[in-house]
User: What shape does this take?
Amino acid sequence: MGLTRLLVRAAAARPRVLLVTTPGGTAVRLAAERELRCRDWPTAATPAGADLMLVAGPEYRERCQELGPALDRLWEDTPRPRVRLRAETAEDVAAALDTGRARLGATEHAHSGAGRTGRTHGQGGGFGRTHGQGGDSGRTHGQGGGSGRTRTAGGERRTSADGERRAPVGGDTDGGMEMPGGLPMAEVGEDRDGLALDRLHVSLGPFLADWPSGLIVHLLLQGDVVQRARLGGPCGGGTTEPFWARPWARAAEGEPVPLAEAARLRAAAHLDSLGRLLAVAGWPAEAVTARRIRDDLLERAPAEAVLPRALRLQRRVGRSRTLDRLTRGIGTLSTADARAAGVSGPAARAGGDVPARYRRWLADAVDDVRRLDGRALHGPTAPDPAALTDAAAPPVPTALLDPTAQESPRGRWDAERPPSVALAGLLPRLLEGTELAAARLVVAGLDPDPDELAAPTREFAGG
Assistant: This one.
């Protein structure tokens, strides 16, 4: 027992953290990523490798009840010793992490084998504002909507959180035999070549690593090919203002916003999207580089300190043949098709596949960094898809943001229908016919903003 206690305390010195972001929690996620990097604490991509589970973002249960079971399954799949934490604001992050490490290494915590102490503060899911360790059990990894089972005359049938019926388990279809782990039996149907292949329902989200928080993509697979795709989540009705679009939202309400402030946030947003794509593509070193530059921009670092690093990142990532070969031909979207679907911003101006879009992010980020010290005045504008920056424009330090002419990070800002709604609406079309291995690259290559999707209640088209 003494050796166990010693090992737990040693692990608590540098715990692995599973960062789970709720819809509307972008600011908290950014603070948590920065704090973890400063502490040199590793992050976990799955619950199996985590010691601490940090839920970052506003409370969601009243408006997004289907996320609760998914979080509970993540918690159930986290091995002991473990601690579940909560940070609703960026200011809560450091205190929550300190509390988690202290509880993880406590002697009584080691004796109890991660000490499940029940729910705190009366909240579902077993966590208080900054700490707590309860949690209801679930059966599987939390990468889809919540699921349950209902008895029918034909046997037991799995049902997702949004009421979608899955393949029957038991009953007449398989002779009353339940499949291992409660998984549904694959169905059979014709594929695009006319062959009869098994069809399987798979859901991605809502809490995958480097994934738009709260977004769920329901896939119908035959072999490793996506036959159909349908979107679910994030839940609407939130009151949190989209983090990356704050300057455009303020300017649309008549508040004077300096153009340099908007350019700084837009450049950081593009680097955030790039970091997520690079992490999904398996290039973590450059993903960290992109996120470091992003954080420096958010901390108001001067342009002369950021521009050389941004240019190096543009050269290294933009010229990478390996990354180009890995993502070439995936998620192809022409400018004409994007405009017809109501998409604006980098996705429309890039007019191509995933490599075209990440190179557009890099070019726009560099242009926006140059704009911080007045080297460029005109950025990407909504009316003209071919408009880029004009490096020869004279410096105008007092230039103000025009939300109708200057695009937000995801496109032309509209409070009634944010640009990420159109981006998310394209996902089913781009996913159908792709291989499952490329599905996450398609999503990361468009990167709809979960804050924009969660703000009002949205209806997604397609799928």
